[in-house]
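Team,

Forwarding the record for the chain on the shared tracking sheet. I've put the sequence and predicted structure together so nobody has to dig through attachments.
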Amino acid sequence: MTSTRPALDALVVGAGPAGIGTALALASIPDLTFGVLERGQIGQTFLDWPEAQTFLTPSFTGNGFGATDLNAVHPETSPAFSLGVDYPTGREYAKYLRSVCAHFRVPVMDDAEVTHVSTTDGGFALQTTRGDVETRALVWAGGEFADPRRPRLSGNSLTDHSMDPASWPPRTGHLVVIGGYESGIDITCHHVERGTHVTVVDGSTPWDAGTGSDPSFRLAPRSRRRLEHARASSRLTLVASHATAVKRSGDSWVVSLDNGAKVTSDSPPISATGFGPGLGPVVALFETRPDGWPALDNDDQSTITPGLFLSGPAIRHGGLKFCFVYKFRQRFAHIARVIGERADKDTSALEAYRAAGMLTDDLSCCGVECAC
């Protein structure tokens, strides 16, 4: 592919928190040319969220005291301040991202879906629905929401995924939810609060995980509190078994379990089994770890494609998960610094991120547990 445009120093794909956050860090580097491509509108993933879905992590304004809002993507901003809410909805958070882009003049091209990515001698060539572009460094921040994972069982097509709009309207009778981690407990509590009787099936019993302080491996405090209320309602049953099959039986759906039991749902069961890394057209440019996530070096760069970086909740290093905004934002400035130094630019301004607690380049510190 040829292009008449000069190659950018860096290009970010995705205008969610990971993409915009990385772009803001790149903007701190003088004379660095960069841009952002977004398949829809800024914050499209959050615009696609069901109306009733909200953040699990709270927003709180404490920037003036050195405490950056957990859901902020820039150290001088706060969703709690700009939105006036603590647990934003998807549309509210998309509004925050739009305001950040406008304030810092982030160059975002909307409605520019990337359809193909190839490597070149000098970097990468991208084909998009709005034309072709070349870049020396590429940051993939496509997010996970467009890559839902359905359970590996017979009849999984008979289930609604928790991201599907059909999963959120009120259900009558009895409902089965497959998967008991955050998304499963979130939608379970949503329906229990509206009067539905729900059975959650998950042989891993994540609702019982009580060791360690990292919410990536246990339910967030808000989820645990909602779960307590749901249990107290007598409309919730938690089953420590894995689903093995789903079949339609008349007006009902029957879920078979690995302990030989069966559970009947009066409407399509909901699969709350998470999301994949959402790599789209760059999937072949990453190696895969044994656990199925993209293999990265210490700079969040593909181990087989130099110059291709990953930003967002799919980042994994050893046993560390960066699946919350306050986690994966720790890497925005690090990725930007690597790109800036390779382009022979001054990256000293990025140290402001470290002062705000938004720059982690020593991954060993991420495993420290709370004392109490």
